[in-house]
Amino acid sequence: MSKSVYVSKAAAVAIVAVAALALVAVIGMVIFQHTRIHQCPSPLPPTAPPTELITPEPMPNLRLPETLIPESYEIYLQVHLHTEVNNSDNQDLRFTGNSTVKLKCLNATNTIYIHSKALNLTVLGVTDENGKGVPVSRVRMWEDKTEFAEIELANTLRVGGIYYLSNEFQGECNGSNGMFFRSYKEKKDKFTTAFVAASQLESTEARKVFPCFDEPAMKAVFNITIIHRRGSIALSNMPQKDNVEMEIDGEEWVVTEFFPTVKMSTYLLAFTVSSFESKETNHGRIKLRTWSRPEVMAAGHMDYAHSITGKLLDIFEEYCGVKYPLSKLDQIGIPEFPIFGMENWGLIIYSEKYLMYEAGISSTSEKYWTAILIAHELAHQWFGNLVTMRWWNDLWLNEGFATYMSYLAMDRMEPDKDMKDLFIVWETQMAMRVEYEGLFSGLTEDYPSTRNEIRTMYNIFTYSKGGAVLRMLAETLTESVFEKGVQSYLKAYQYNSAETQDLWSHLQRAVDNSSVHIPVAEVMDTWMQQAGYPLITINTTSGEVSQEHFFLPEIPSQYNYTWQIPIKVMKSGSEEIKFDLITVKGPVSKSVYQCNENEWILANVNYTGYYRVNYNPENWEKLLQQLETDHQKIPTLSRAQLIDDAFKLAGIKYVNITLALRTTKYLLNDTEFIPWETAMIHLHHLILMFDRSEVYGPMKAYLSKLVGPLYDHFESFTNKSSIPDRHTAQLNQVNAVTVACANILPKCQKMATNLFDLWRKDPTTNPIHPNLRPMVYCSAIGAGGEVEWDFAWKMLKMSSSDVERERLVEALACTKQVWILNRYLEYTLDPDKIKPELFSSTIRSIANNVVGQYLTWNFVISQWSNITQMLSGTYSAEELISGVTLRFSTKYDLQQLKTFDELHSGRGVFVESLKRTQTNINWMEENKQTVLEWFQREVSHGNNKV
């Protein structure tokens, strides 16, 4: 236990009288000659009994009892980490400190339960508001899922009383949560190893740093003081209040005190200790600072992130109707931070590489992903920080809102970039694909209690599906009504916690004051509590409409759900969009779904709903004809929806695969990104299934013809290695080059080879636009040999950019030379050649090359013991096997995978890969001949038609 334990001044005075803690008091008095007095009238009682470690029967309830609530914390943390050391053996990874938590008693009790995990904890004592000690009878640490410290008192606490619990603790900076550290190389006179300490307390990791009431609804005010090494800088949620240097135990330290926080949850508390540098801007009343390693800051890689933060804050303030409540906002990029970003109030922590934008190296897509990430974390300052979900089962209130709002804010910041529409392909479709495969999830159906159960709530459904159903609701209510309801909700529950029903209540008030008529809770509860999503089937001849649960046929549904489904419908020859609400399974007849023989009907207009639509064959035929004759009569997002729905309906045999393939034919005349991207996702799956079979020849010919006009549309830009203005056009230029070069369109191959050769002749100047580099690198290396590969390898080793290194790692896997691929696989086992964090992506890239598929599989089998050692906690064995076996679609493949699973896990660990392989086998048996004949027919129609 460190001697440098810090308590409030009032507490320190009391300790002087306690002989057992005399040394602690002396040190405390030295420090607090230089710090301000904190409000805590409670002197400490004599030392509590030593802590017992017990393994009791499981608690009947893993939640904290509703007997005490925290009002404020006084926390003193001494971070012993050196931010720079010559010898890593001299590094000190400890943190020590103490805390006093002010409690209010709600129900009489003689036991205090508080969370503590992986801490060397000493309970100093309990006092009442008058400073009188409450004797502690026993302290026990529960070694079970509760992660409780149980403090048994000799007296019962009275209802309404205020009490103070004081503790000492010690822990270590390790892992990727709680308090942890990261090292990096820093160039001064020479390269040295530098360190940064940071916190990551979401969801239940605050208890690993200090004993606390670690539940989201247990909000309190936090008074934080950080004691850190001289030469380092400490940051926390609030602005710095005081900062003094002093000598402690013969070493130079800095004591940094911060202003009290607003009332907030434990998981949002944050602190960092580093020698980073910052870029600072005064944005009205808010000081904005962006922090990073000095090298990154000097290169200007944080300039873009810093430049958009104030604009996004203004947008959120206007939308939410509530001002950002703090006077500062720090954003900091940490090397190898375990997640993309963490929304701590006033101190947002990011993974460095996702916060960076490297002009001339990063693509515009990577630039806007950085913007979306920043917008996501800024949205949390209101959705999650200001108003927090009461318990983790409502996590979607945080993450779903942040996902939806990030696109909305980006669209308002740059309305000409079509960011709002990109939500469809990057969120809605992605979530629907996962649920289609049988991983069903409602948004509030689970009630997690343990750490692991809570962790599972952070999934694609909470984020993407949560955002998608909010988008559906906003489009149903109209955005203006939705915005008014959201503002009312935020104002009502600010600095507090809420549940899903609270949101519905405030949205209903906004609805009742508008011309919209919809029972919000009644409709939305069917989407919150039910797993999966529905399929709507419409017969346009009879006007009948019905719904059913949509899922793969080999995954039996255990559910009998009925959704309330808001549907937007349009008919050919009219731009009017009609609204209907389906509340029964049906079939029921409604005139809105009936049309004459010359009309077609389109449902789920603009892909606003989180469901799929099937039609009678006659209506499908009319829609296909409309696409081929004048596709612009159908809205862009709806064109994407028709493609997406058709392929998924073919997957469950509700329509023929040829109907799905026909939805792609009209793309000859479409240059919009979202329909093309949707089609490419599905066609890529067909490539994986068929690129080792006789189907691939006519399929490649079809794709080459299909992409020709799109490539021509962007060719003037591509040949000059430049890009169009619109963001979605830039994205579709990438699609055009990707598909054209992959299918050996001569002009694309020539363009890629020429640009790559220009770079080889002058390696100091890369003439290839960052947007086009992945495709150009891959195409040139695939068409070339050892010379091209060795040049790219040399550039990989020389590059200082993570972005560029990752591109080159993937491109090097494109070679068709078997011996080079085998050599590359061997390189992955040498950390001096391939960095461990790039190991898995390199393996998957080689497996993605049809030439490297079985080479990779054989390599994985033979090197499994080495590979399992290479895998980090951020990438599992199951994920690696899933990436390597994407093409598995034969009985031989399945047997290989089963044998491997039995040999190396024996527990069916690779169950998802096994299920997918069996699904692929079934699909191939049913569709291969049909697909072959369809592609053969289409490519035999001449050079100008598909």
Automatic annotation (TrEMBL):
The record marks 463 as: Transition state stabilizer. It is found in: Membrane. It catalyses: Release of an N-terminal amino acid, Xaa-|-Yaa- from a peptide, amide or arylamide. Xaa is preferably Ala, but may be most amino acids including Pro (slow action). When a terminal hydrophobic residue is followed by a prolyl residue, the two may be released as an intact Xaa-Pro dipeptide. Pfam families: ERAP1_C, Peptidase_M1, Peptidase_M1_N. The keyword Transferase does not apply. Residues 304-527 form the Peptidase M1 membrane alanine aminopeptidase domain. Keywords: Aminopeptidase, Angiogenesis, Differentiation, Glycoprotein, Hydrolase, Membrane, Metal-binding, Metalloprotease, Protease, Signal-anchor, Sulfation, Transmembrane, Transmembrane helix, Zinc. One of its GO terms (cellular component) is cytoplasm. Its main location: membrane. GO terms for molecular function: alanyl aminopeptidase activity; metalloaminopeptidase activity; peptide binding; zinc ion binding. Zn(2+) binds at residues 376, 380, 399. It is a single-pass type II membrane protein. Residues 600-904 form the ERAP1-like C-terminal domain. Its cofactor is Zn(2+). Residues 70-268 form the Aminopeptidase N-like N-terminal domain. Binds 1 zinc ion per subunit. Its EC number is 3.4.11.-. The chain crosses the membrane at residues 12-32. Belongs to the peptidase M1 family. Homodimer. Interacts with SLC6A19. This is Aminopeptidase. It comes from Aldrovandia affinis. The lineage of its organism: Eukaryota, Metazoa, Chordata, Craniata, Vertebrata.
